[in-house]
Design a protein that fits this description.
It is a single chain. With about 70 residues, the chain is of the alpha+beta class. It has one domain. Helix content is about 20%, strand content about 25%. A two-stranded antiparallel sheet has the order 1-2. The protein has a two-stranded antiparallel sheet with strand order 3-4. The longest helix is centred in the middle third of the chain and has 15 residues. Bound molecules: zinc ion (ZN). The site of zinc ion has 7 residues, from loops.
Length: about 70
């Protein structure tokens, strides 16, 4: 039988950056949209995006990293 759970509809890729896991966005546009949504939902501003140095994808920068250090 086929396992339908093996390929879920959409689960965000993540990668480890330092000691935290960050969501990977395939494109800069996708990351920027996510940043705007996060700003709206959390009432914050100044989120940015940057290209991951470990792979061909993008991450958000800003409040996500508040916990570090
Ligand atoms: Zn990454």
């Amino acid at each position: 039988m086929r396992n339908k759970f093996a390929t879920g509809p959409y689960e965000p890729k993540k990668c480890w950056v330092g000691e935290s896991q960050k969501i990977c966005y395939a494109t800069r546009d996708e990351a920027e949209v996510a940043a705007r949504v996060a700003e709206y939902e959390h009432g914050i501003s100044g989120l940015g995006v940057y290209k991951c140095e470990y792979g061909d994808h993008w991450h958000l920068t800003g409040s996500e990293e508040r916990e570090s250090k």
